[in-house]
Design a protein that fits this description.
228 residues; alpha+beta; outer membrane lipoprotein receptor (LolB), chain A; 13-stranded antiparallel beta sheet
């Protein structure tokens, strides 16, 4: 009798795990389909994007390059301030204004290991388990949790109507950063965010409007070279 009960318990656990796995796949499949399909996303090797940035009374620009294998470079200017952030997949540097480039701290590096999958780039992590270095899990409310190895968690809330990300939440130190996706556009058959709002919980927040997106542009490897 005990053996039968044990076997039944094991069977229920296996069925429950399989059911959760199917639910996970179904939610990510819905997202992949809404974004344009895995095949189209799989063909992306590099993305180049330009955006206008507003933070209160200040305005600026962003230029960012991302690769499907997790490298990125971001050139940001707002007011009189400028930063260049480079992550080569393992190490990172920051250059502020006319100052010398410096190596990222361990805390900054952890955030950068997550930032490489920010916004639309989360597709590279979520859609392709064979490329992934980290974990993906599902929580109630159509929430997908991405955890890159060595990085912070991204909590992605999918819009139940469109199956596209509505919010992405992560922590930077003791701050909770919430990005809300206001609108989307279609580039070469793939859905990309057009306007996002970024908040750290205070009264002030940033608005980012993407003005240019190029898929697989010619890219010099020097863009992602660590500069000391």
């Amino acid at each position: 009798m005990n053996k039968l009960l044990l076997n039944n318990t094991i069977l229920l656990l296996l069925l429950s795990a399989a059911s959760r796995g199917l639910a996970n796949d179904d939610l990510i499949d819905r997202w992949a389909s809404a974004a344009g399909g895995r095949d189209k996303v799989a063909a992306i090797k590099t993305l180049y994007r330009e955006a206008e940035l507003e933070f209160g009374a200040y305005k600026g620009t962003i230029k960012v390059w991302h690769t499907a294998d997790g490298k990125y470079r971001k050139d940001e200017k707002i007011g009189d301030l400028s930063t260049v952030e480079i992550f080569d997949g393992a190490k990172g540097t920051l250059k502020e204004g006319d100052g010398a480039a410096r190596e990222m701290t361990s805390a900054e590096l952890g955030i950068s290991k997550a930032k490489r999958f920010a916004n639309a780039n989360a597709m590279f992590f979520a859609f392709f388990p064979e490329r992934r270095h980290g974990s993906v899990s599902i929580e109630p409310g159509d929430t997908i949790v991405l955890k890159p190895e060595g990085g912070v968690e991204w909590r992605i809330g999918l819009d139940p109507q469109t199956s596209l990300p509505k919010t992405m939440v992560h922590k930077e130190g003791d701050r909770t950063i919430t990005v809300t996706f206001d609108s989307y556009e279609t580039i070469d058959g793939i859905k990309f965010e057009k306007e996002i709002h970024r908040s750290a919980g205070g009264p002030a927040g940033a608005v980012i409007r993407f003005t240019k997106t190029v898929i697989n542009p010619p890219t010099d490897a020097e863009l992602f070279a660590i500069k000391q």
